[in-house]
Amino acid sequence: MGLGTDHIICKTEFVEAMRARLASDRPELGDTVDKPGAQKNLGAFGLAVYRIATSHAEVVSAADTDDQFWQWFESLEKWASASSNWQQDLVKIFANWEPERPADRALREAILRLPNPGAPPQPPHSLTGRIQ
Fold first, then answer.
1. Distance of CA 114 to the CA centre of its chain
2. For an engineered disulfide with 22, which of 16, 29, 96, 104 has Cβ 3.0 to 4.6 Å away?
3. Average pLDDT, the chain
């Protein structure tokens, strides 16, 4: 679950946390968070937290913090590179093949007409995201 498009989730968390806090001292105090003044104040806290989280906070991932993810990513990079090499070798084989039968020539031409995806893109070495 994300933070949503406005500060309402943050405000609700402040309201409920404060309700529980006050009720732990005296149960009848829990309802004071529903008063207009308390709602305005807790709403301001919620807005501040929402702005901090969505405007200033970043999520960063690098090999030293997310080793398992980056190991998988490195494996994926190696797989993509091996797949690219396989594809290039296959094209060379078909390009050098001189079939005699019409069906074989048609196969060769069909394979050589397939789009070439090119080399795999260079992978990033870290990621930076924003909290939503």
1. 32
2. 29
3. 91
